Amino acid sequence: MSSLKVKVCGLRDAENIRSVAALEPDYLGFIFYEGSPRYVGKSFFIPDDLPSTVKSVGVFVNESAQSIQRLASLHALHAVQLHGNESVEQCLLLKSSGLEVIKAFAVDNDFDFSSLKPYQGSVDYFLFDTRGKNYGGNGMPFNWELLNRYDLNVPFFLSGGLSNQNMQEVLKLSYKNLVALDVNSGVETAPGVKDVQQVEQFILYTRNQLGVQK
């Protein structure tokens, strides 16, 4: 299994952001959806001294393209992650503006992967998360065997309940278009506060495929 990228999502405190960014994950995610317990708030800012290798991702739910573009410009975002019912046209508009576009979908046993075909060409990545009562952030994995049904060429992020406790199973996955792991609540001490040591361990497991220590 080739080395996967790592996205750490749901940060909002400047010092916590700096500490996690120093570990150089590939992406840091910031949630601009007010309904989330990890919502960044109105006075949020991303520190301007983060490593240049770390991409900033804004997470949005059913926000207008204009609002997303405004916030992307304000916070110098590299990418946007869309968790609502955003259309193919909206994704294409954001992608054509120079943003990486990650379109998230909530997966359960009845999910129809063929419904994603219209999004090919309008997004850079899909993100597969667990279907639950929230728009993401449900803290539980879905049945990863369902990904055997996915046969499109768009690379994807895996999300939903990832933690150091289940990394041994995650690293056995061999889906050819799996390119990144998205971790959130599994490395937290409280909503929006990441445990830096747990994040470091997660990154080491992912990049070096170390055996998970008991």
Layout of secondary structure:
Layout: E1 5-9, H1 14-21, E2 27-31, E3 55-60, H2 65-74, E4 79-82, H3 88-96, E5 100-107, E6 125-130, E7 156-158, H4 167-170, E8 178-183, E9 188-190, E10 193-194, H5 196-208
Parallel strand pairs: 1-2, 1-8, 2-3, 3-4, 4-5, 5-6, 6-7, 7-8
Antiparallel strand pairs: 9-10
Features:
214 residues; alpha/beta; TIM Barrel; eight-stranded parallel β-barrel; 5 helices
Notes on the protein architecture:
With 214 residues, this protein is α/β, with parallel strands linked by helices. It has a single domain, classed as Aldolase class I (TIM Barrel), CATH 3.20.20.70. Helix content is 21%, strand content 22%. The strands form 2 sheets. It has an 8-stranded parallel barrel with strand order 1-2-3-4-5-6-7-8, surrounded by 4 helices. A two-stranded antiparallel sheet has the order 9-10. The chain starts with a strand and ends in a 6-residue tail after the last helix.
Q: How many structural domains?
A: 1
Question: Could you name the ranges where pLDDT drops below 50 across 5 or more consecutive residues?
Answer: 210-214
Q: What overall geometry do the principal axes of the alpha carbons give?
A: globular
Major sheet summary line: 8 strands, parallel, barrel
Helical proportion, percent range:
10-25%
> CATH topology, which one?
TIM Barrel
State which percent range the strand residues make up: 15-25%
CATH level-1 class: Alpha Beta
How would you name the CATH homologous superfamily?
Aldolase class I
Strand order of the largest sheet: 1-2-3-4-5-6-7-8
Tell me what the CATH architecture is. Answer: Alpha-Beta Barrel
